[in-house]
Amino acid sequence: MYIKRHMEQQILNSSLFYPVVMVCGQRQVGKSTMLNHIKEPERRYVTFDDINARRLAENDPALFFETYGCPLLIDEFQRVPSILLEMKRIIDQKALNGEDNSGMFWITGSQKFKMMKDVSESLAGRIAVFDMAGLSTAEIEEREPDIFEPDIDALRRRAAGSKPKDIHQIYERIFQGSMPKMVTTQIERDRFYMDYVNTYLERDIQDLAQVGKLTEFYDFLVYMAARTAQELKYDEISGAIGISAPTVKTWVSILERSGVIFTLRPFYSNITKRLVKTPKVYFMDTGLAAYLCRWPSAETLGNGAMDGAFLETYAVTEIVKSYYNAGKQPDLYYYRDIDKKEIDLLAIKPDKLYPIEIKKSKAPNNPDKNFHVLDKFNTEVAPGLILCMCDEIIPYKRTVWYCPISLL
């Protein structure tokens, strides 16, 4: 069964204007499945998991493109990044000949930041890049594509298409995760995630060639899953795992590159400060994080010590996915000051700050207690949101609204 992806129209639109469209993201999120589903009949498909295609591309890129032609869909392209120069030559030659070079190549890969370095040098101005995550709840429920906007009118429109969910259904979704195979088949959950982790360690991580002992990296992966929705403290991780802080930084960047984690920066009015201060880390697939933490069921997860962290991870990543699916980078931050006053999420618009808190209860008390800290910024603070287990969008007071998590 195929679930329609919200990104599809963005891909097709970009293909009308750019010679190359790249979709990158975590392994198994459905990149090649989506592109194969929407591609034109004449677009050929090749994967660099195929050793013969890979050898040809490495040894004679010109012959590779003569053999497969275009339009062409190349899967796992990051395994032969050297073909980019030949791809650029073909694109530019077509432009010099006065021919339309739009939509020539669609490429996918599961190591997005490694890819971006090669791409930015070779294909600047010739490529549209999309990050892809697992299925969003909105995609599973077959809602219309829509960025999560914290504006009350936008939320009311969103509420019209969403399905109410109780706390047990929310934690079932968190426990199951967002990988298409987990959602659309009856595959046994632990078997799927065990195979996923093994494949990730044996292929993606070894391809990056920056990890010595895979057993240590696995311990690090488990430790990071147990710290989802928490601040990223390199020295703390270093001491717990027994590896150096520089190694921790390298390994964190590997998780980011391969789309396993999303890092949320702290908000400062000074933009350079945002880049150097401690980010928070979220696992993009809550099912993978729950598997690594060995939670045996949705019920034990929902009643366990990490229930709040997983609920926050679910909420933040659902919002992030809505940005990715619209082809946009999320303009999201968190707030924490020297007095340890925190706000879970800040959505930044050109002229407004939207504070968002994430709570497990149905009608949390005094949920906006820290919102006043935003008054010191010379920016209008919009009505805040409390994402919680309430049944409808309803005001807590004039400047703060309760909003059901089921709207995500």
Describe the 3D structure:
The chain is of the alpha/beta class and 408 residues long. The protein folds into two domains: 8-132, P-loop containing nucleotide triphosphate hydrolases (Rossmann fold, 3-Layer(aba) Sandwich); 143-407, no CATH class. 43% of the residues lie in helices and 17% in strands. It has 18 helices and 15 strands. It has helices spanning 8-15, 31-38, 51-59, 61-68, 83-96, 112-122, 137-140, 152-159, 167-176, 180-184, 189-208, 214-226, 234-241, 245-257, 271-276, 286-292, 298-302, 307-325, and strands spanning 20-25, 44-47, 72-75, 105-109, 127-132, 230-231, 261-264, 280-283, 332-336, 342-349, 352-358, 380-381, 384-388, 394-397, 400-404. Strands 9, 10, 11, 12, 13, 14 and 15 form a seven-stranded mixed β-sheet that branches. A five-stranded parallel β-sheet has the order 2-3-4-1-5, with helices on both faces. It starts with 7 loop residues before the first helix and ends with a strand. The mean pLDDT is 92.
